[in-house]
């Protein structure tokens, strides 16, 4: 891979992760348990769409083949998607969504805090912008981990089950392949593996405060960087892309 | 009319009349969305910075800018996005903050360099109706991405708070 192809790949991964998570959060629209949460989750979805747009637009520019953010979002198949596995996990119950988001939000705050110093001006700009928003997401998900974990017997159990379930998808966030390593060495990207210990400390702190426990099983699922996904992504993309594929170039 | 006959000051003047679609009391210039206006190869180039990356109003900013440029006789204005430096509520002047408050939106409290937020402390937000500091956050995500929802414990009115980012 040339440097340009690596940069393109990197931007796709970032954009795909936000785009897929945006879609998941959008699925909560009208399903929130209270109006304020419905609004919160769709607001978070909007933030992720914004981040995805910035990343995919830049990916298209880097690629230089004239592909737009829409081309990249709607006309690539499952195996050509490189989002983090954690982003595509189905919403499940509210605790499942909160557990998934919490693990990702803590990661995002740490990752973007570093990435805002990227030597690539566009990436630094996107990161500085997205960081402001993911801090709010982090506050939201961490608050709910506390409320549900340290809540009723039922909410505690659901939160614990959700954390046990999402755990094996967290290792994927810190994986480094040649693309990540090359860009991190060049000062463009971030060495995610160096963030893992800090991430674990922050996650553990909230989990313990919420009277919950982290799972002891450390088996981690991998594959997103090669386009390998869980069963959930194909179903999600089929729904997300159906309109654009049925009516290419459709305008509102 | 050709571009040479229109000064960039006129362009700024026109842009300063375009209201934020969701907060019509302040303009997109006062909001800090318009970063730069310049001439490039005989084209007017307007650089804008989104407030929130996913703000649905951003597309309306674009459409409003292009429409107002056409009214000025500029057919081929270009809009460029700039993410660096990231938009911040620090760019809102005291005057704009006061306009927000009068309109019924509590303005962002203080400066973003203030680290209280990360330490888990919440700002003291004054009620826009009765000025009481005895208020509480109902939801960190309000009617739009840039606002949180608050309620006053004194007069019981709910109101939006413009997040400090």
Distance between the termini of chain A: 38 Å
Largest interface: A-B, 31 and 27 residues
Shape of chain B: elongated
Radius of gyration of chain B: 18 Å
Write the topology of this structure.
The complex is a heterodimer of chains A (252) and B (165).
Chain A: H1 3-26, H2 35-63, H3 69-74, H4 85-88, H5 94-115, H6 121-149, H7 153-166, H8 178-185, H9 196-209, H10 231-246
Helix pairs in contact in A: 1-2, 1-8, 2-6, 5-6, 5-7, 5-9, 6-7
Chain B: H1 8-15, E1 34-40, E2 43-48, H2 57-71, E3 78-81, H3 94-103, E4 105-106, E5 135-139, E6 147-152, E7 158-162
Parallel strand pairs in B: 2-3, 4-7
Antiparallel strand pairs in B: 1-2, 5-6, 6-7
General description of the model:
- The complex is a heterodimer of chains A (252) and B (165).
- With 252 residues, chain A is mainly α.
- Helix content of chain A is 66%, strand content 0%.
- Chain A contains ten helices and no strands.
- In chain A, helix 1 (3-26) packs antiparallel against helix 2, helix 2 packs antiparallel against helix 6 (121-149) and helix 5 packs across helix 7.
- Chain B is 20% helix and 21% strand.
- The interface between A and B is medium-sized, with 31 and 27 residues.
Describe the structure in brief.
The complex is a heterodimer of chains A (252) and B (165). In chain A, 66% of the residues lie in helices and 0% in strands.
Q: What key phrases describe this protein's structure?
A:
heterodimer; A: 252 residues; mainly alpha; 10 helices; 66% helix; 0% strand; globular; B: 165 residues; alpha/beta; 4-stranded mixed sheet; 3-stranded mixed sheet; 20% helix; elongated
